[in-house]
Amino acid sequence: MASQTYPVPEPSSLHLYDYKGSPCAARIRRACALKGIPLKTTQIDLFNSGQDTTHFRSLNPNGLVPVLATSYADGRPDLIVTQSVSILEFLEESFPNHRKLLPGPNDMAGRYKVRDLVLMLCADLQPPINKRVRELVQETGGDLNKYMETMFNTVLDAYETIVSKNEGEFSVGNEVTLADVCLVPMAAFALRQTGALTRWPKIDAIAKCCKEMEEFGA
């Protein structure tokens, strides 16, 4: 039996619950900017318990940003997406006629390389260095600076090894992808933590290349 395909409806509006200092939320703002998708934002102040309001917890019981709320003009139920990687995939699938940030099925090697790099940053590095974990390290008497240095070095060293094999300007080839969308805010975080990105010259070059693009100011 031949497989059937179904059109993915394009939302009529997107509302991002955001925090300007969050690398996770920055991924979504920049992906939308690159795709030319209008985005309404509401700031959630994570340092003044903005994530603990009844309304926000009703959207995301885990109390983290980003949260993307969608509306549809045809009356179908609104959708709430609460993980940044899921949101990035949602944007790719829901806006197929906009700029693509994930290589297509005809480039399976590139497609899964991008996904690997995204998850290195978002699954291997982001969770251990988020605000909750940093606070726990300090509360339990750990050396926060040493801990952060170890986390960044472990994952970014591996990322550097992989992308150094790519002769293109970006993480995968010569086109910006979801990997770069996730890398730039993490590189900025690493720069604040370490003072320089000289340990990772290819990452530094990619970040600088991205920052020349207006959309990365989002």
Automatic annotation (TrEMBL):
UniProt-recorded Gene Ontology molecular function terms: glutathione transferase activity; maleylacetoacetate isomerase activity
InterPro entries on file: Glutathione-S-Trfase_C-like, Glutathione-S-Trfase_C_sf, Glutathione_S-Trfase, Glutathione_S-Trfase_N, GST_C, Thioredoxin-like_sf
GST C-terminal domain boundaries: 107-218
Biological process according to GO: glutathione metabolic process; L-phenylalanine catabolic process
Domain of life of the source: Eukaryota
Gene Ontology CC entries for this record: mitochondrion
GST N-terminal domain span: 12-99
Identification of the protein by name: Maleylacetoacetate isomerase
Organism of origin: Scytalidium lignicola (Hyphomycete)
